[in-house]
Amino acid sequence: MVFLTGVGCRTLLDILETQFPLDVLKDALAKTTLAVRGPKPAGVVKAFGLHPQILVPEPNTWRDVLHALDVSFPEGLTGKRVAVQEYGVSNPELLEGLMQRGAQVTPIPIYRWTLPDDLKPLQQLLQQILKDEIPVLLVTNAVQVDHLIKTLGDNSAIKQLQSVLPHMMVASIGPLASERLRHHGFPVDLEPSHPKMGILVKEASQAAHTILETKRRAP
């Protein structure tokens, strides 16, 4: 069982508790190899009275999940059933990587990231960015980039954003968000030393002045 997020792990366990007696559920999970991506799902699992056997290290990307499983199962995953607690959107690269290793994969979607019903605040913010009125952009997950593209709508607006962002400081919380930004031709000026929200905000605030001054002086 692969737990990818703390809130998803907690929600899944809460749902299972409505279907099975607690002792039966704990006994079943105790017989299952539990892999957790980072400290948040690890904390939920431990609070449930269990101990994860596989701790995925930072920066907790899908590649790190696969590497951690490769270390624990050097012989591969052929014939093993692997359930993946998903988050926000499905991760096809992770699921494909598991299947390539021979696993029988069951994705478990817990929640979905979607755009808000009222897009006006986001659209107003984008207009401020396009007018070069905002100097710093913090991106905290890859899906935000896709939502940004969807909200912009047409290629001319996307090209305008591509021309504006090099004058701003763009800070990405980690490799997956950075990969998505670069995929769309957007710059990445900073990744924090650890992929955590608080550290992103702190290190972005510390680096913003220097990065923006360097950009302003560039020809």
What does this entry show, briefly?
By secondary structure, this protein is of the alpha/beta class. It is built from 10 helices and 7 strands.
Can you give a write-up of this model?
The protein is of the alpha/beta class and 219 residues long. The chain folds into 2 domains: 2-109, Rossmann fold (3-Layer(aba) Sandwich), CATH 3.40.50.10090; 120-217, Rossmann fold. It contains 10 helices and 7 strands. The strands form 2 sheets. It has a 5-stranded parallel β-sheet, with helices on both faces. It has a two-stranded parallel ribbon with strand order 6-7. Helix 1 (6-17) packs parallel to helix 3 (39-47), helix 4 (62-72) packs parallel to helix 5 and helix 7 runs parallel beside helix 9 (175-183). It is elongated and about 65 Å long. The model has no long low-confidence stretch (mean pLDDT 95).
Please describe the topology of this protein:
Elements lengths: L1 E2 L2 H12 L4 H9 L4 E3 L1 H9 L6 E3 L5 H11 L8 E6 L5 H9 L3 E6 L10 H11 L5 E4 L2 H11 L2 H10 L4 E4 L2 H9 L13 H21 L2
Parallel strand pairs: 1-2, 1-4, 2-3, 4-5, 6-7
Helix pairs in contact: 1-3, 4-5, 7-9
Structure keywords:
five-stranded parallel sheet, Rossmann fold, alpha/beta, 219 residues
What general outline do the C-alpha atoms trace?
Answer: elongated
> What's the quaternary structure here?
single chain
Number of helices: 10
Mean pLDDT: 95
Task: State the CATH architecture of the largest domain.
Answer: 3-Layer(aba) Sandwich
* Structural class by SSE content: alpha/beta
Approximately how much helix is present in the residues? 40-55%
